[in-house]
């Protein structure tokens, strides 16, 4: 604040900061920046009548938007005030080595594995004595639970990799093994998911599934839609959580709403779950972080067991989400009588082989580097896929944008002729997922059309598929597996 007495760390956006700023300017506050964060410090100072925590609570009641806040008063250096709204915040507890505040579990791990996830509308005082929590609305103290995180500090280190994303890509085989865990019985052709809160009666009574998520988790959900409709024979809708939460979706007690999230803290997905529950739907979370806010909101959880994902771009969690959807679709398919035990057995067998196949693929780094260096100077890419690999194209385009800062679009290949083909020329290469599957011929012909526009094609193709080589300029070969499982490999 203008006296340098209140220090603020803020993640999020204060939506009504201009209104608050106007009020504070009128009462003589001077600002040194244009940021929304600065008004938080001034607002606390404005409310301070000698009780700093009361001032903090009064300020919180005025703030709209999203925040994870950590506040320090210069005159009280042994206390940190914390609060959250629509942004994750957790406190790490130790007996003698201090307390810690962060927005994610990973940075805590070298200090403590005992954490408290704050809920919406909670504020706390962190000090040497531990944590005290209060309800922001009533000011009443709140009791809380300390969660023990199963991850260890080594899991949050780079372990010799240049960056976390590379490490996490290499963890994918083990992550898939962990997600499968003890959830299958190959002998009986059964999936063992009794702990997710969907028994046989509920599985049979479902008349619709709605999947909701953001970003990469949404694309995993899109693969889930194909799988659940096929094996479960249930109509499945999917919606971005940021759209779903502001619509008036039609849901009832026979709808299963599946929320997908690595962090379990994404604000739009959390709000989507609240809405689904309000409307009486049964909710299931496909989630990575145990104890996260989402796990406490949903009726049941299917943990993906991917370990800490520290790289900003999701990789291994995406794989684990795909496996989770695979297992869930087979589980519902068996319970609803739409999937034969024999077919389930076959899929379990093939699923278990995938980690090994990916280990082999990860050895092809040199080839990938060579191809990357051929394509690195293009500034636009089109990713094409069909059917269950349409989401693979969307996810590929997202990763390229996010990591290489190159513009890329993902398209369902059958849509090309309805407009986007106009964009293709020698400066816009196509990355096409054209592995063997039910729509193989279709995508090959879509790629032929694209090539008539002179664009370069990089095909993701099935190993030893000589025939397709005529239609691509470069190829990355992947092992031949059941098309239903191909998104994991592609
Ligand atoms: C993309 C990516 C994001 C997340 C999205 C949802 O690489 O990481 O698109 O997938 O922000 O996050 P979670 O899964 O934590 O809800």
Q: pLDDT under 50 segments (min length 5)?
A: none
Structural class label: alpha/beta
In round numbers, the mean pLDDT is 95
Gap between N and C termini, in Å? Answer: 53 Å
Question: Strand arrangement, largest sheet?
Answer: 1-2-3-7-8-9
Please indicate the percent range of residues in DSSP E strands (runs of 2 or more): 15-25%
- In which range does the helix fraction lie? 25-40%
What small molecules does the structure contain?
Answer: fructose -6-phosphate
**C-alpha-based Rg, rounded:** 25 Å
How many strands appear in the DSSP assignment?
Answer: 22
| Helical segment count | 16
Largest sheet: 6 strands, antiparallel
Shape: globular
Report on this structure.
There is one protein chain. Helix content is 36%, strand content 22%. It is built from 16 helices and 22 strands. The longest helix is centred in the last third of the chain and has 21 residues, at 341-361. Helix 5 (172-180) packs parallel to helix 11 and helix 7 packs parallel to helix 11. The termini are far apart. Strands 1-2-3-7-8-9 form a six-stranded antiparallel beta sheet, with helices on one face. It is globular. The chain has 490 residues and is α/β, with parallel strands linked by helices. The chain has helices at 17-26, 36-47, 52-62, 164-170, 172-180, 200-205, 215-232, 241-244, 267-278, 293-297, 316-335, 341-361, 365-375, 390-404, 440-451, 486-489; strands spanning 6-14, 65-73, 79-85, 90-92, 100-102, 114-117, 122-127, 130-135, 141-142, 147-148, 184-185, 190-191, 208-213, 236-240, 255-261, 282-287, 300-303, 380-385, 407-412, 430-433, 457-462, 474-478. A hairpin with a 2-residue loop joins strand 7 (122-127) and strand 8. Bound molecules: fructose -6-phosphate. Fructose -6-phosphate (F6R) is lined by residues 214-217, 261-263, 266, 269, 313-314, 398, 402.
């Amino acid at each position: 604040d203008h006296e340098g007495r209140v220090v603020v760390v803020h993640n999020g956006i204060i939506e009504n900061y201009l209104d608050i700023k106007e009020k504070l300017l009128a009462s003589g506050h001077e600002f040194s920046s244009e940021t929304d964060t600065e008004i938080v410090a001034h607002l606390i100072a404005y409310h301070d009548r000698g009780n700093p925590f009361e001032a903090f609570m009064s300020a919180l009641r005025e703030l709209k938007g999203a925040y994870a806040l950590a506040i320090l008063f210069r005159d009280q250096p042994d206390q940190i005030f914390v609060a959250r709204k629509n942004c994750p915040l957790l406190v790490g507890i130790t007996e003698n080595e201090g307390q810690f505040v962060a927005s994610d579990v990973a940075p805590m791990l070298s200090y403590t594995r005992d954490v408290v996830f704050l809920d919406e509308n909670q504020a706390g005082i962190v000090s040497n004595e531990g944590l005290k929590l209060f309800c922001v609305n009533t000011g009443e103290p709140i009791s809380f639970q300390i969660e023990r995180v199963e991850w260890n500090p080594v899991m949050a280190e780079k372990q010799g990799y240049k960056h976390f994303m590379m490490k996490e890509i290499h963890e994918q085989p083990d992550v898939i093994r962990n997600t499968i865990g003890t959830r299958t019985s190959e002998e009986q052709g059964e999936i063992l998911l009794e702990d997710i809160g969907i028994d046989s009666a509920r599985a049979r009574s479902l008349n619709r599934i709605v999947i909701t998520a953001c970003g990469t988790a949404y694309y995993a959900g899109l693969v889930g839609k194909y799988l659940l409709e096929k094996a479960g024979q249930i109509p499945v809708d999917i919606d971005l959580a940021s759209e779903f939460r502001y619509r008036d979706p039609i849901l009832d007690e026979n709808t299963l709403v599946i929320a997908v999230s690595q962090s379990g803290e994404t604000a739009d997905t959390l709000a989507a779950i609240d809405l689904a529950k309000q409307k009486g739907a049964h909710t299931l979370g496909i989630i990575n972080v145990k104890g996260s806010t989402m796990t406490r909101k949903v009726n049941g959880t299917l943990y993906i067991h991917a370990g800490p994902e520290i790289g900003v771009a999701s990789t291994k969690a995406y794989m684990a989400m795909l496996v989770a959807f695979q297992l869930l679709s087979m589980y519902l398919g068996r319970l609803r009588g739409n999937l034969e035990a024999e077919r389930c057995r076959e899929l379990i067998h093939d699923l278990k082989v995938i980690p090994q196949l990916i280990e082999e693929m990860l050895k092809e780094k040199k080839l990938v580097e060579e191809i990357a260096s051929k394509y690195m100077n293009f500034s636009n890419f089109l990713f094409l896929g069909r059917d269950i690999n349409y989401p693979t194209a969307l996810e590929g385009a997202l990763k390229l944008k996010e990591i290489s800062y190159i513009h890329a679009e993902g398209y369902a290949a059958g849509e090309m002729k309805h407009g986007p083909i106009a964009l293709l020329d020698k400066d816009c290469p196509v990355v096409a997922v054209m592995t063997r599957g039910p729509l193989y011929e279709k995508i090959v012909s879509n790629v032929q059309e694209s090539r008539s526009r002179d664009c370069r094609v990089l095909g993701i193709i099935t190993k030893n598929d000589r025939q397709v080589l005529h239609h691509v300029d470069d190829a990355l070969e992947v092992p031949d597996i059941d098309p239903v499982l191909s998104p994991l490999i592609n």
